Amino acid sequence: MRCLFGSMLVAAIATVACPGSARPQDAADTPAPVGRAAAEQARFELKDGDRVVFIGNTFFEREGRYGYIETMLTTRYPGKRITFRNLGWSGDTVWGESRGYFEPEKGYQNLIDLVAELKPTVIFLAYGNNEAFAGKEGLAPFIKQYNKFLDDLEKFTKRIVLLGCLAPEEQSPPLPDLSRYTTSVAGCNEAIKAIASERQHHFFSIEISQLDHQGGHATDGVHLTGGGYRAVADRLVKYIVPTAKTQASPNMEHAERIRMAIVAKNQLFFYRWRPQNTTYLLGFRKHEQGQNAKEIAQFDPLIAAKEEEIFKLAQPVAHKYELIRVKEDRKGGDKRDANEKGDK
After folding, report:
1. CA 203 to CA 189: how far, in whole Å?
2. Can you tell me whether residue 16 is helix, strand or coil?
3. Which pTM does this prediction carry?
4. How many C-beta neighbours within 10 Å does residue 295 have?
5. Which of 46, 64, 207, 253 lies most in the core, judged by the most C-beta atoms within 10 Å?
6. C-alpha to C-alpha distance for 14 and 163, rounded to whole angstroms
7. Share above pLDDT 70 across residues of the chain, in percent, rounded to a whole number
8. What gap in Å lies between CA 104 and CA 89, rounded to an integer?
């Protein structure tokens, strides 16, 4: 039986797994530990009470819409109350320009202020794809700002996972040739990997070509589909717990309910921190509708209620299955009567 999330959702959502579905870790599929001994890297885990914040560009904003990575992390640690906040912003860079609204130079400080408000204990960081468009000339400034960013983030927590740039897929004409961009992405990836090693952080590479071979992982060679995020989550789970053997759950409807609850929570939080008409609520036109800004905080109880739903859904559930012997005639037909057969 094939799991909805590949082999990602382990027995965290079902205490009875499919016979024969155990899948040992494939060392060739697991990113090599960087900056620490392999044994220490294997101990990366989330703890009860952790506040996880995803910070990055389009990669994390789109993840909030699909929820596969967060679902994997949630179901990996049933019984632990762990919150997730997604601060992904499409087109963003380590300078935070996208977050400045009409004042790009203020975007970086806006981001730092928001992170301070969330008080993260764990951070996943995904940058570099947009910066790679600057080519070789942009690499040194990128490295400098990336390190400054980490200097500021490490004031909140030392438990940071650095994600590599999303290495694009090769495209055939008439789609554009991405070879030059791919070379630049590789340079940013090597820089992030070196920073992770130097600063003793975890590093996780994301290369579409190294995901499972089912294809359809990106819409344009760069932006992941739902299947792409599912494949990344499957790969990430083996990185976080390298010694784990994953098992597919037989209850796919339950697994999907968890993911959809997470997507709904992410949407509520999106409205909380990026409300529509920000200019009217908080910006230079707040004198017109600023009185409505008080409604932003009203999302908080809705988010809390959705998180409670997710916590309950993620608890292990026992399933009982009964195997019934079927007698077959010589022609291979089913000998049960109509009442025994039931629906097919």
Report:
1. 10
2. coil
3. 0.80
4. 10
5. 64
6. 30
7. 77
8. 13
